[in-house]
Structures are given as structure tokens and as C-alpha cells.
Design brief:
The complex is a heterodimer of chains A (113) and B (114). Chain A contains no helices and 12 strands. In chain A, the strands form 3 sheets. In chain A, strands 2, 5, 6, 10, 11 and 12 form a 6-stranded mixed sheet that branches. In chain A, strands 3-9-8-7 form a 4-stranded antiparallel sheet, with no helix packed on it. By secondary structure, chain A is an all-beta fold. By secondary structure, chain B is an all-beta fold. The radius of gyration of chain B is 13 Å and the shape is globular. Chain B starts with a strand and ends with a strand. Classes of the chains: A mainly beta (113), B mainly beta (114). Chain A binds chain B through residues 9, 32, 34, 36, 42-46, 49, 51-52, 90, 92, 94-106, 108, and chain B through 31, 33, 35, 40-43, 45, 48, 50, 56, 91, 93, 95, 97-100, 102-103, 105-108.
Chain lengths: 113, 114
Amino acid sequence: AQSVTQLGSHVSVSEGALVLLRCNYSSSVPPYLFWYVQYPNQGLQLLLKYTSAATLVKGINGFEAEFKKSETSFHLTKPSAHMSDAAEYFCAVSDRGNNRLAFGKGNQVVVIP
Amino acid sequence: GAGVSQSPSNKVTEKGKDVELRCDPISGHTALYWYRQRLGQGLEFLIYFQGNSAPDKSGLPSDRFSAERTGESVSTLTIQRTQQEDSAVYLCASSSLWTNTEAFFGQGTRLTVV
């Protein structure tokens, strides 16, 4: 079964600094990969997804992620953090064989002024 | 409907009572998930329905938890004899048949057991 690892439950970043959230997956076949964001008191919404087209995927609000098969990674980045980026971010993997999503534990991002 | 709908949005119940949480998925979505999110923690998988296949119940924490889904429509999550540790936000999500499509989440039901 596929699984997702997100290290560091809380991530602090200064406003204007690089945001980097790491995601590593375990899957027996090349998976589909997703990043979701949950803003305070809101539901989860899709930030971006990788579905075997370009390995560098651009999402909403200036975020992007790169699929690296050799590293089994799908790290999320944003060049310059904004206060509005304070949220919880979840990486998810969907095995092509069974369509079931598996989520990581999430990263709570705090943006420091 | 336009999105995944969950009801109630908030539920306060006394310890020992049973509760039912409802999820209306997006029309045509064959897959439906239930997750639990405790305060300050990540998403905990509970159960997964896919079409008419047997559900994956591997995430249900105890036999007090059960869920049903009629065809590809509404699902109900039932918690019997609620305990304080059951307090959490219960999230429902649905997705289409294709594995490259994302899951769409409801706003959740916030359950508080007092």
C-alpha cells in the first residue's frame, strides 16, 4: 500500500522567504501526487497535482512542486512566503491501481512578519 | 449538488450517546472517504467506499465506529457510545473513478463529546 511521509509537523518561515515542504512517498507503481491546503477554519482544497505530465507542476497562489522519481519525492515550494500562506498543507498519493488516496500527517506553516 | 455536503456542521453530544454524521458526495463520484482530524493533528483515514466493491474499513478505530453507503450516494458514519476522545472534525471526501483526479472535501462535522 502506498504511504506518504511529511517531516516536521510545524514549519516556521519568515515573510518573503522560501517555503519548502517535503513530501516523500512509497508506492509500488508510479503514483499520482497531490498537495492540499487547509486555511484556518476552512475545508481542504487542492493546491496542485501531478498526473504524469510535466514533472514540475504549478498550482494556485504561486506554489509549485516537482516530482522526482529517483528520490520518490514531491516537495512543495514557493519562492516568497506571504502572510496569507499560513495554513496546514497535506501531501497525498493515489496508487494508480486502486484509486485510494493516502495522506501525510500535514505541515502547519506559520509565517513570521 | 455543487460540492460535497456534510451535516450537521457542528454536533455536541453527551458521552455514551450515539451520533450519525451524514455525507452527500458530488453526483457521479464513485469513491467516498471518511477521515478524522483531531485538534492539531493530521488526517486519520477511517473508511473508503469505491462503487459496489467491499469498503476498506481498515482505518476504523474501534467497533463503535461504522459507516454505510447506499450505492454511489449518501454515506452515514455512526459512532456508538461516544467517548471524549471521539471529539474531532470528521471530514468526508469524494472523487471520480479516475485515479488521476483529486478528491473533493466537505467542510466537515465538528463533533464535541462532553
